[in-house]
Structure formats: C-alpha cells, structure tokens
Amino acid sequence: MMKMTTIYTSKKQTKIESKGPRFEIGDFCVKLGSVTMSQNFKGVLVEVEYRPCVVPASAWELIREFLQGFLGSTVSNQAPQYLQNRMNEIYQPMDTIQQYLEHFGQYRKATGVNPSTTIGEVKQELYKLKKSLYVQRQSLRLDAKGKSLSDSETIKSLSLKAGGKLYYKDLGPQIGWKTVFLLEYAGPLVVYFWLYQRPWLFYGNVNTYNYHYVANCAAVAWSVHYVKRLLETIFVHRFSHATMPLRNLFKNCSYYWLFAMYVAYHTNHPLYTAPTKFEFYSGAVSFVMCELGNLSIHLALRNLRPSGTTVRKVPMPTKNPFTALFNYVSCPNYTYEIGSWISFTVMTSCLPAGLFTFAGAYQMTVWALSKHKAYKKEFLHYPKNRKAIIPFIL
C-alpha cells in the first residue's frame, strides 16, 4: 500500500491512513485497507487493479464484474465519479492517489451526527479526533458568546439542520469538583490547627499551653464546620458538573486557606480578648443551630437528584423542621451558612472572622441570586413568594 503522508496532510495535522493486506488473484491485485483517523477506525477501502490494462474504459466491465462477485450489489454499475471523465486516458499512479484523497475527505466529513445525536455524543466525537480535548474540557454553544449547551440536548431539540454550526470553546485543564472541595476544606483544618499550636514563626517564644476557653471552643467549632463539609463532599453532595477549570483550584484554596490563617492567628493569639459570656453562649448556640440547618438543606437537596443524573426539581420543605426555610428562600443552605459565620464571629468577637463572613456572604448572595433567577426561568410554577437568600428581603 502506497504511503501518502507526504502528499496528504490536514490543516489540523490529523493523521488518516489506510493499511491492510494485498492479494493477487490471476491478473487482479486487491488491496484491503483499514482506514483509521487519529488511531480511530473509520472504515475499509478496497482497491482493485487489473494489471494487463491501463485504460479504464477497457477494463471497467471486468473490474465491476470481479468486485460484484464478492461484494455484491454494493458495487455500482457505474465507474467511480473520478474516472468518468478519464475513462479513455492512460491510468497513472496519481489517479490512485487522488481517489484515496477523495475517500479520505469523505471520511473526515462523516461525523455520524443525526437529529437524535446528543451534545455529549458530539463531544465524544471531538475527543476521538483529538485526545487532549477530553469531554469535560469542551464547551459547545449555539453562539460564540452564548451559554454552554447541556450534554443531554439533541441536534433536533436545538433546531440544527444540515450545515448548521456549533461553536467550540476549550475550557482548559479541568479538575474534579470533589477534589477541589476536599482540598478547599482540608486546608483550613490543617492551617487552623497549625496556628492553634502557636508556632514560633507567627508568635515567637510564647506560652503554648495557656488558652482561653473561648479559643478552645472556637477551634472545636471551626473543626466541626470543616469536618462536616468534608463528609458532605464525600457522602452527600451530587454535582451537576463533574469538573471545573484547574485555575479555580488555586483561587478557591487561596481564599479558604489564607482566611483560615488570618482568623486562627487572632483567635489563638496569647493576647486574644474573649467576648462576654452572653455573646459567647448566644453565638455558640446559634452556630450549632445553623450548622444543623445547613446539613439538613444539603440532605434535602441530595434527595432531589437521583444518583448519576443531572435532574433538577423545585426544592421543597421536608419533614425536617430546618428545611422549612425553603418556604421563604431559594438557597437556604447559603442562609444557614452565613448564619453560622455570623454566629462564629459573635462567639469569638473576632474581626477577621467578621471579614471572612462578609466576603463569604457577598459571594453566596451572588450565587443565590443567580440560582433564584435560574429556578424561576426553568420552573413555570416556581413559588412566587420566595426570595433568593434573605427571607422577605433579598
């Protein structure tokens, strides 16, 4: 089989080739080629040569009869399109090359897309063409600056017809959501308890045994919160997206880890000034209640989405009294989360904790407003009396 890589090279450098055995049957030479594109099988090409003759018009009937003898009616009675205007010319090696090029071009255009093809299947086809573009890294859109299409949508549902276009965007290297969450939440635990030991690097030579009881309780509360988050990540959360951009890992971890260091430095400082008993106990009780509420909401949300699916339903209260907040806001998990950190700030009387609360509350409010808007757009009968995150207000 003639090697053609020096003659045919695609603009994207996608390698396509035909390899296979060669057979000689009397005056006929038959070459069976298995066609692969980027190492993916695409089909079989059959090349037949009648060696005593070099003029296609004189040999076509014999070749046709020979081919139909073992390929049947799949062989057309007419000569290949390429030869129809060259039937009386002397056949040259370049004619073979040109026919291979035509077939290779057809294989490239054959995507296997039909009206029932899903966006997820289109992504799989793109992945076959270029292995570095794994499915989670791809974003397909109807418009260059439009919204990413869901993997479950079909060509028909998008009203795409022959010649229609999808716009592709490379989302860059991806990392699993679960991995990101685990790193985000494990970091604050490690950092906080490192500073809890009052390392010399931060505090110099100080007493590492005398702690105010509020500082000890703050360490327990901090641990409860992040251990809960780690366990929820492993056993509770079901993610609608498998991955996120790798760059988000560094951004998210920096936020959590640095704030953990900032808060822990103050709550564990030898000169730390504790709040009044009323502030401490009221904050501690509120913290526990909000943590239970947050866990209850996460469990309720988990039960809305069957395992292995991206099904979305209107979240509603359950028998758990903590979920009653669904009657008033779309994202009560954020409401409880903010409540937890307000409570932590009160029970520790720590300004850095307050700054951490403010930063988190701002981001969660943005997320809540976005989710609230999406809920109202997706569900026609979404409860009208609900706010996004703060009952009756926002």
Automatic annotation (TrEMBL):
Membrane topology value: Multi-pass membrane protein
Record Pfam families: Med20, Steroid_dh, TECR_N
GO biological process: regulation of transcription by RNA polymerase II; very long-chain fatty acid biosynthetic process
UniProt entry keywords in alphabetical sequence: Activator, Endoplasmic reticulum, Fatty acid biosynthesis, Fatty acid metabolism, Lipid biosynthesis, Lipid metabolism, Membrane, NADP, Nucleus, Oxidoreductase, Transcription, Transcription regulation, Transmembrane, Transmembrane helix
Assembly, per entry: Component of the Mediator complex.
Family (UniProt): Belongs to the steroid 5-alpha reductase family. Belongs to the Mediator complex subunit 20 family.
Function according to Swiss-Prot or TrEMBL: Component of the Mediator complex, a coactivator involved in the regulated transcription of nearly all RNA polymerase II-dependent genes. Mediator functions as a bridge to convey information from gene-specific regulatory proteins to the basal RNA polymerase II transcription machinery. Mediator is recruited to promoters by direct interactions with regulatory proteins and serves as a scaffold for the assembly of a functional preinitiation complex with RNA polymerase II and the general transcription factors.
Name assigned to this protein: Mediator of RNA polymerase II transcription subunit 20
